[in-house]
Structures are given as structure tokens and as C-alpha cells.
User: Fold these one by one.
Assistant:
Number 1:
Amino acid sequence: MDLNITNSDIAYIVFAIVAVIVAFMLIKKVAGCLIKAVIFAILVAILGYLYYNFALVEESGEETNIETVE
């Protein structure tokens, strides 16, 4: 079994390994940023929903009276 490995083959293998490592690091950074953005968007939506609902309660000024039957 005779393996003919040239310098260009070694350079290609090294380049492929470096490209995989760089791609992994970029995906890790982007995914972390996207997860943070999604969590932030969900929190903003929840806070907006709560603000909208409590603003409507304050504007109505109506009190709900619950009568107890004895």
C-alpha cells in the first residue's frame, strides 16, 4: 500500500481543519447571539402584554364587587 501524500495535500487538509474550526466558532457566536435576541424579544412581548392589560384596567376605573351568598 503506497500512499503518495504531497505538500499540496497536506496544505489542503490543514486548510480544511482550520475552516471547520473557524466555522464552529462562528456558529457558536451567532447561535449565542440569536438565543439572546429571542429571549429578549419574548421578554419584551410579555412586558408589553402586561403593560397593555394593566393600562386597560387602570383606564376603566371600574371595580368588581363580588357578593358572597350566605
Number 2:
Amino acid sequence: MTDVFTPEKRSAVMRRVKGRDTAPELKVRRMLRASGIGYRLGGCGLPGRPDVVMKGRKVALFVHGCFWHGHDCPRGARKPQANADYWGAKIERNRARDARVAAELTAAGWRVVTVWECRLRDSDIAESLLAEIGDDQAAALSATTAASSSTCDRAPSSDPGVRGLDTK
């Protein structure tokens, strides 16, 4: 089957595929931040450049797209029709690299957590992610935060009952 786009248009489409700050990655980061878990971006020079690093916990978190990393869900099992040989080999190389990187990180004493794009649709993803990271305190915090609203919705200086925080 031939491509529906011209080579120039296909090139433009592929250039727009992002490698960082993707929607699934941002969703995971929002969950971590809402639970009070601190993290760093950029991989800190670790093998495979993890999407999120928690140095104190020695956790390297990867957010993988199902298609690009060959997950065994329906979306990841989809085989491209155009240029199938190239894409099949590319996905296999990605899977081999992911396994190699996970082994290197584990050997260096890091825990590797992989979050799959399809799993982000589940309603219990936040609880299972926190359990996998191993943060009982953050899991309890997220449960109480979900049950009650936060009292820190506004800046203190905008609250009429607080004095001494106003700027000149």
C-alpha cells in the first residue's frame, strides 16, 4: 500500500511527533505533582534518559507510547501497512533498547517504572502508579486530597482575613 501523503507532507507530519512533553507524559507528571511527589526531568545522565527521575527514591520512570514501543495492547499490536519492514524493525530496535536500558538501570540500583499510554485511560492509574513507586505517604495524601477540597486555593495576600502580606 502506498502512502496517502506526499514525501514532503509525510516528512512534515513526522517532524511534529514529539519526543518530550507529550500528553501522556504531562498526565503522569500532573498525577505525581498532585500527590506531592517531587521529580526531575531530563534523565540526569542516566541510560535511556528516563522521562521522570526521582533521585531520592532511585526511581527512573518511563512513559511509553504503545505503538512506538511495541506494547501488547491493541494499539501496540497494530502493524503499519506503509513501509512495514522499516517500521517493524524500528519497533523491534526500540523494544531491545528498552530492555537493555532497564537492565542497565537495575544493575546500577535504580527501580525502573514503565507507564504505558493505554494504561493512562484506567480509572485506578494514580493509585497503582503511586503503589509501584512505593510511596505510601503520597498514596494516603492523594486519597485525602480527593475526598476533601484544598484550603490553599488562593494566595494568602488576596484573603481579606490575612494582614501583613500585602505589597506596597
Number 3:
Amino acid sequence: MNQEIDMNLIEGLRKQNPKAQQTMLDRYGQLVFAQVARLVSGIENAEEVYQDVFIKVFRSIDTYDATKSSLRTWLSRIAYHESISYLRHSSKPVIYYEDREGEAEKLSESEVDATFGQPNPETVQLIRAALKHLPPDERAIITMFYYEEMSLKDIAYVTESIPTTVASKLSRTRKKLCKIIKMLQS
């Protein structure tokens, strides 16, 4: 049913129907804005990227292929690339945590799970603070997997990678995030 609704929406978008464009914004706007805002700091900056995403979506709707991904995943791919592009061209230099000694890699998965612990307000706050210390591509993978609950296959599509690479990067990034949380706690 949802796929059928999306196909009708896509048909309207391909005809540049303003009602279809508004429906797209109503249905997917919050999701896209949330994804962009988790990567791009500052409401004004996130709004700028959000607008760029939908301009690109409306201009390139003819390239959407339902056999490759859902509409939602395709939108996430565009939002991801627009956000990363914005951050690369941003004039503000940002310093991210770098695991030069490989300390994070030495952490076991059980140690990582214990650090994240049961979701509670303190843990969520620590994770949010720690995410700011990750480079945008790593932050994106964490947020797509945990916040947006995307599959490894969908994340791979968004990032133009393969699921095994995403799984490996997710594991490394979780360990890095764990190390950052421990540093923030001390």
C-alpha cells in the first residue's frame, strides 16, 4: 500500500505538480530535516541544507529507481550527500577525536555495550555530546543505524558502500564513541 502511494507521489513529482511537492514535504520533511540537523550544526545551516535537499529531489526525481531503494532511503541518500558536501565546504574548521594510538579498537563489543548501557537520560546526553566529536561520515552512520533504524543495506546504499564495510565502520565507530564517552565521564 505504502509503495503504491509513493509511486503515485513520484508520478506527480515527475509532472512537477505543486500538490505532489507539498505532499512530499509534508510526508518526508521532518525526517529529512532531522537527518540533516544531526549532521549540520545550527538551525539556519540545517535549514539551508534541507532546502538544498528538496531542490535536488524535485530536480532529480526522474533518476529515482524504486528497484534500488525505497523513496525514504533515496531521500536519505540525497540528504546525507548534501550535508557532507555542506560540511566540506563550510569555512569553520572543526577538530574531531582521532584514535591515533588505536585505543578504541582494543575495546571489546561487550565493553562497548556496557558503556552505552540501558537507555536513560544520562546515557542519551553522553551519546549526544560524544557524537559531536565524530567526523560527519561516522556520525551519519551512527545516526542512520540508531536514530533512523536503517538496515546496513540501506546505509550502504545511502553512503554508496557495501553492507560489510558499513558493519565494520559501525563497529569501529561504536568503539570510538565509547572511548569518547569514557573521556567525557572522566
